[in-house]
Amino acid sequence: MARRGAPLRTAVPALVAAAALGLSACGGGGGGAGGGEVTSLRVLDYYNNEPDKTVYAQKLDECGRQAGVAIEREVVPGAQLVAKVLQQASSRTLPDVLMLDNPDLQQIASTGALAPVTDFGLSADGFQEGVASASTFEGQVYGLQPVTNSIGLFYNVDILAQAGITPPTTWDELKTAAATLTQGERYGVAFSAVADYEGAWQFLPFMWTNGGDETDIATPQTAQALQLWVDLVNSGSASKSVLNWGQADVKDQFAAGNAAMMVNGPWQFPALDEVAGLEYEVVPIPVPRAGQDVVAPLGGETWTIPRTGDPARQAKAAEIVACLNTDDNQIALATDRTTVPTKTALRDRFVAEVPRMAAFTDIVQTARSRTGKLGAEWPAAATRIYTAVQTALTGGATPEQALQQAQDG
Hints:
Layout: H1 13-26, E1 40-45, H2 52-67, E2 70-75, H3 78-91, E3 97-101, H4 105-109, E4 114-115, H5 129-134, E5 136-137, E6 140-141, E7 143-144, E8 147-148, E9 152-156, H6 157-163, H7 171-181, E10 187-190, H8 197-209, H9 220-234, H10 247-255, E11 259-264, H11 269-273, E12 280-283, E13 301-306, H12 311-324, H13 327-337, E14 340-341, H14 347-353, H15 358-365, H16 378-393, H17 399-408
Helix pairs in contact: 1-3, 2-12, 2-13, 8-9, 8-16, 16-17
């Protein structure tokens, strides 16, 4: 998703095959051979909720005016985007500019539906390494991502102060703080362990920071991370309902005072800011041992140039992608969407202008992409991860057994 980085869709093998076949047969995506002046461009994205819908409508129109074209924008629900793009690739009706959730790029690039942005003089030089990696397939950069996000540990300032608790920085401190903060109907900590990509996304900082690896989740390092979650739930420091909570549900529990701390992302700021009397802050997710840097996943969307078969339209599309990624527009989009600019040189300027994003700006410096190791095979790994998490948290197996079963399955 987009903003919360989690709802990565599963691969659609039949559509992928059809798309690849169609591209092979016609030598390109939609549009056919073009000609004449380009006066409009078709754009496809999934920003159908506010404030993103309006923010991007304004920014795309602004970039369109600079490029001398009108923007014809289509917005679809996030869960439908990948299937729609694959169908468009097969039917040669791809848009001129396409936004993709960054873990989906490699799947789409593998069909031949996208043109490398370097073909149009664009470059990911200066972008955060993990962000550039997410937009790279077989050594070629296929998209540029203006902003990114990740997840951190939110805490209720008043509740922790009243309990004399400082925000935890290690796993041991997290367990101790969560136990102390659990009182009556209030849990010490909340997170999402739901059986989908949000659950996998939330588990990654614990798994990765402890040395776990998505290429083989049946390791002691990943088992230790999963044991931490099991201990939090079994001790009552976290609700058993984490098995069913998406990140929006976790936010609701935190906002209602039913959790003193939560794992979540900066897209929750606008909703939390509307809660009367709620004072909260964010710190990095606790690490196994003091002094470590958390390794969290990178979210956000990348903007690509489909192979439409019309060089003039593709050149204009490249102007839109470039415009969205100027320094000023990265700062503007990050500010309006409570995300982080992807160009590392903008970090200090952004934090000076938006101090509340300091923690997340730090977090993304050591974060990495979900597709960095497995590419288009990431969805299968994500499924194994959240399956193992569910099995262990429901008591169906020990963390070690649950991870081995999922890896073998």
